[in-house]
Amino acid sequence: MEWLNSLFVEHSVVQAVVVISLVVAVGLVLGRVKVWGISLGVTFVFFVGILAGHFGLTLDARMLNYAESFGLILFVYALGLQVGPGFFSSFGKSGLKLNMLAMLVVLLGSAMTLVFHWTTGVSLPDMVGVLSGAVTNTPALGAAQQTLKQMSDPSLEQADLALGCAVTYPLGVVGVILALIAVRKLMASRVFFKRGEVDKKRHTVIVGFRVTNPGLDGKAVEEIARLSSKRFVISRLWRGGKVVIPTSETRVETGDRLLVIAAESDVEPLAMLIGERDSEDWNRENIDWDAIDSRLESHRIVVTKPAINGKRLGALRLRNLFGINITRVYRSGVVLLPTPDLVLQLGDRLTVVGEAAAIQNVERVLGNKVRDLDEPNLVSVFAGMLLGLLLGSIPFSVPGVDFPVRLGLAGGPIVMGILVGAFGPRIHMVTYTTVSANLMLRSLGLSTYLACLGLDAGVHFFETVFRPEGLLWVGLGFAITVVPVALVAVFSLRFMREDYGAVAGMLCGSMSNPMALNYVNSTVESDTPSVAYATVYPLTMFARVVLAQLLLMLFL
Questions:
Q1: Given its phi and psi angles, is residue 428 left (phi above 0), alpha (psi -120 to 50 degrees) or beta?
Q2: How many beta carbons lie within 10 A of that of residue 316, not counting itself?
Q3: I want to staple 16 with a disulfide (CB 3.0 to 4.6 A). Which of 63, 221, 389, 427 is the partner?
Q4: Number of Cβ within a 10 Å radius of residue 258
Q5: Domain boundary assignment for the chain
Q6: ∠ at Cα 204 (199, 206), nearest 5°?
Q7: CA 81, CA 102: separation in Å to the nearest integer?
Q8: C-alpha to C-alpha distance for 110 and 372, rounded to whole angstroms
């Protein structure tokens, strides 16, 4: 039995890998179990780690610190890469209101943390741990832990934020759901749904028009585009029974039929500009585009050439050079309007319409070699993490703080991940990773971090929970979960007359709670909650990581 003892008890590199792998594997299996339709997913790794730590499984302190830190860095950087492309666009007109409401939830929770610290006597580090669990945000916990280490105060070495997080996390998951159920029942007369209106501005549709505006007669497509503030693409033009692919110089005549791709919210303004709308449904799934004209074909081409990464679609002049039209661009499951100023990225899938020979020429320009994308670009991952750590180590001064402030192991990589994801392609930096590769990186990093966090917290977990202090933490955490969600929900529904689906999705996103989102999606007959969740998630995730550090820096 000595070999078994060396695998699980005696501290070594092999023992650390075995224990972490065991905790992660068991946690992921149990995380799939649903209770009342709710499962904790990867978060269950945290609680399995707590049990393992409670029953005596430990790691070498330096090994534990390394694995925990590396897992956190990998997770937050991959998370930044994921949310980066949509981070700054989420501040657009349609998402600004939702982001402001979500930030109100974040600020209310942070304010309650300070108030509870001042009124109950619970230490601020413990309250930040309680806050992290109450809002189910482990990256914020990691950032706070790094801040405590950075402050180099011997009196803070005994602070264990992970205990507060572990105690309050379960009710943090359930509390959002309970608050939404209560608000919906209490405000039944105020709850209403605008099916599809949240994503109407983003949803791209195909519409047919007949040119009846005499002011457009003889004007080139490029001139017509300048007449309208709306963005659109003319995919096909029918004249005299023949179909042509219009270029920017093609002149439109009264009576022409145009097939236009535009945002759904822009259809009516375009009808006022162009003329009578076609009665045919061009958005049905079973339409045979190749049968519309035997000379024209429709193909989907994938951008795989690194030279195309970061270039604007208009700069390639594909329409004028090859006589083709790009009708749609698919990126990470989102349909984008192929306007000339759209910046292309590796992995974009372009729907190209034209003659077979022309489409082959476009394939040579764009690549269309899907195998080139199968291998993840690890250079950008490790280079980005390196830059993130360098950024996180840069000291800067904050008024009211006596020591240099750093973004640290959590703040630096997530900021760099967002910047690389958002602007990398614009400087021709290849940042593409497949959705599955990004998910793998995030899951691997988060699982490792949670396993180490649980093992560290498990030693004193149960003795803390069953003390009066532990019960107090549970109550304070539940209040931090429920009160901000309920107040902002009531404010949004009663005074701002917001759609319930959008409000519910926004609240789930502001609390980093995908389990609550799953519940909301099962009760709302549209994808409005998911769209709202994705709109506010990037900003609130970043804000919570930063605020967790600022609370300790400014008020400790």
A1: left
A2: 18
A3: 63
A4: 25
A5: 204-370
A6: 140
A7: 21
A8: 46
The Cα angle at residue 525 between residues 519 and 530, in degrees rounded to 5: 60
The residue type of 471 is L
Q: Rounded CA gap, 173 and 134, in Å?
A: 8
Q: What one-character DSSP code corresponds to residue 273?
A: H
DSSP classification of residue 43: G
pLDDT of residue 488: 92
Q: What is the CATH number of domain 204-370?
A: 3.30.70.1450
Instruction: Return the bridge partners of 251, or none.
Output: 220
Q: How far apart are CA 510 and CA 529, in angstroms?
A: 12
Nearest one of 296, 260, 295 to 277, comparing CA atoms = 260
Place of tokens 């958005």: 283
Helix or strand run (H / E) with residue 493: none
66 burial class (0-12, 13-18, 19+ CB within 10 angstroms)? middle
Q: Strand, helix or coil at 326?
A: strand
Check if the beta carbon of residue 82 is closer than 8 Å to that of residue 418.
no
Distance between CA atoms of residues 552 and 556, nearest Å = 5
Q: Is the pTM of this model over 0.85?
A: no
Q: How is residue 265 written in tokens?
A: 């919210």
pLDDT at position 103 is 92
| Mean pLDDT per 10-residue segment, the chain (556 residues) | 67 82 87 67 78 81 84 80 66 74 93 92 88 82 76 57 76 81 75 49 76 87 82 82 80 88 83 84 68 70 80 82 80 72 80 83 82 69 87 72 65 79 70 72 83 77 71 89 92 82 85 72 68 74 81 80
| Cβ atoms of residues 313 and 326 within 8 Å | yes
